[in-house]
Amino acid sequence: MTILVKRDMRVIVQGITGTQGREHSRLMLDYGTNIIAGVTPGKGGEKVHGVPVFDSVMDVVNKFGEIDASVLFVPAPFAFDAIIEAVNYEIPLLVVITEGIPVHDAMKAISYAKMRGCTIIGPNTPGIISPKEGVKLGIMPADAFSEGKIALISRSGTLTYEISIALKKEGLGTSVTIGVGGDPITGLDFVDVLEMLREDKDTEAVVLVGEIGGDAEERAAKYIQETEYPKPVVAFVAGRTAPPGKRMGHAGAIISGNVGRIETKEKAFKESGVPVARLPWDVPSLIKSSLRR
User: Fold this and answer.
1) Domains of the chain
2) pTM of this prediction?
3) pLDDT at residue 293 above 90?
C-alpha cells in the first residue's frame, strides 16, 4: 500500500455542491477514487455525478459507517468547523484544499486533529495522488502523473505538475505525490512525509519541491543528514528572483530578514548531500544520477 492512500479507501467530499467541489469530484471519480458521499449543509438528498449528498458528516457515518478520507472544498470562513466535524467522526485523513483559512484557525484545527490521531494534508494543498493505487484526492491533473518509484513532495502547485511531467518524459513515474500546502501552518511538512517514506517499498527516491519562506527546507535537510536518510533525495527550490519582504503566491512564501532566503535553503540541502536542481526540468537527470550511485 502506498503511504496514506489505497485503492479501495472510502472517500467523502465536504463542499461537493460548490463549483470547485463539483468539478473536481468528477475528475476524482474519473480517476478511480471511491467517493461514496458528499456533504453540504442544506443540500441533503441531492446527487452530484451520482454521489449522494448529505447535510452532515454525522449523516454520512450513520449511513455508511467508517470513512477513510475526506477532501474539503469548504470556503475559508466555514473550513474550521468542517475540519473539526470530520475529526470528531474520526476520519483518519483530511485533504484540505481550501486557501485563505486564518492562521489561528489552521493552528487550532491541526493541533486538534493530531490530538485525535487524524492526519491533515494542507490547508491550501493540491492534494495527493498515487498512480499505482488509482487514487486522487484533490485537484492534481491526472495526466501529469504516471506510475513509478519516485515520491514527489511539494510546497508548490503548478511546479509539482511540471516536474512530474518531466519525470514522466524520462520514464521516471511517481509512487505518490503529496502537496503539503503553501500556507505558513500545514498538517504535514517535508520531515513528516520523509519519515513516512523511509520504509516505503514503492519508493526508491524522493524529490522535494520547496520555495522561499519559512524553514521547512532547512529542517528537511537537517533531518536527512542527521538520520542518514536511506534513499536518494533531490531538491528544487522556487523563488530565485523574488524580492525580500514580498509574499509571492503562497502565504508561506515570504522572506523576512535572512529567514526563508533561497540561498540558505540551497546551501542547507547541498551541505546535507542533497543535489539541488537549478531548473525544474533538471530534476530527472539528478534523480537518475542519484539512483546510479
Assistant:
1) 11-121 (3.40.50.720), 141-292 (3.40.50.261)
2) 0.93
3) no
